[in-house]
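S2.1 Query sequence (Tight adherence protein C)
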Amino acid sequence: MIFYLAIAVTTFSAIALLMAPMLLRPSPEAQRILDVVSSSRPDRRTVTEKEQVQERVLSMARDFRSRLGLAENPKLKARLYAAGMREAKAADVFFAAQFLTPLVLAFAASFAPDNTMFFVFAAAAVGYIAPDFWLTSKTKKRNNRIRRSMPDAIDLLVICVDAGLGLDQALLRVGEELAISHPDINEEFTQVHLEQRAGKPRMEAWQSLAERTKIEEFTSFVSMLIQSERFGTPIIKALTRFADELRTKRRQHAEEAAAKTKIKIIFPLVICIFPCIFIVLLAPAILSIAAGVKGLSN
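Output structure tokens follow.
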């Protein structure tokens, strides 16, 4: 009986092994999906030495900040967002810059032959303040780029809303159209869209946009959108009027800048041009007077 049972089990196993490729073969739909998602490219990516060094420096800065008990500053995070630095490691990079820049400059100033301590402390102070000034300058440049792109964005927004798109879809479409020429305003419009998809109310998302950028034109734009949403006024008329006001204000800023150049040009004129004119006009007279005085003395 045991012999016959062993023969039966062996026969069944052999038949199962022979039938397994046909029975366990995926369906044509599953096979097409497997062909799409399968790839011969290795899943792992080669990490360069530069990325390894950056990760070590950031981990050291992160550990040092945790040992000092310094939590993340919300104001610093808002400033980083306003400067366009939205990465998760942006705060660590800024802290590492504030920590390493004074050390590097102090080490370089230690080679000064005279007043070494003074130069070391001065270089350390400058190195600590330099990242903050750089972040402020980066924020101002980005705000200026956004301010210059506002008229084009509002004009495209008027066209999209007039064509029948909703305000949210129009903002997203305008950001996509301006992604190459004005990437900063595309980032802001995309951020508003992502916040709304995450469940944030529309008015709060717009208000966050105004608080994040802190640009006068954006603040007026958000106030206009909130009033139109709250009181039910036609959005196309409000956008058209706002676009006209924005163009007028842009023209006035250009006229103001042109008027200021008359005053600003005085300083290079006095410092650089007038001395040359004086030399050309007065040098021959001075040489003639010197020659006459020399002749009288002889």
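The CA atoms of residues 55 and 241 lie 50 Å apart. Residues 116-162 form the longest helix (47 residues).
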